[in-house]
Amino acid sequence: MARYGGRSLKSSLVLLLVALSTSRSHGFLGTEKKIKSEVFLSPKLVMNPGNAANPFLFDIDFPRGHYGLKGFDAEMVDEEGNPVPLHELYLHHWVIQPYYVRKGFELSQRDMPRNHGFARQDPGRNLGSKSDFILVNNGGLCRNNVRHYFGLGSETRKTSTYLPDPYAIEIDNPEERPDGYEFKWLLNLHAIDTRGVVDKSGCTECRCDLYNVTIDEYGRAIRPDYNGGLYCCYDKTQCRVRNGFDNGEKTRSVYLKYTVKWVDWDSTVLPATIYILDVTDSWERSQGSTGDSQEHYCHIEYEVKPCKTNGDGCVDVKKKSLMMPFNGYIVYGVAHQHAGGIGGALYREDGERICSSMPKYGNGDEPGNEAGYIVGMSSCYPEPAVKVTKGETLTLEFNYSTTNGHTGVMGLFYILVAQQLPEPESSLPALFQAHAKSMSVLAFLAVMVVVAVIVLIAAVVYRRQNREDGYQSLST
Ligand SMILES: *[C@@H]1O[C@H](CO)[C@@H](O)[C@H](O)[C@H]1NC(C)=O
Ligand SMILES: *[C@@H]1O[C@H](CO)[C@@H](O)[C@H](O)[C@H]1NC(C)=O
Question: Is 46 helix (H, G, I), strand (E, B) or coil?
Answer without folding.
Answer: strand
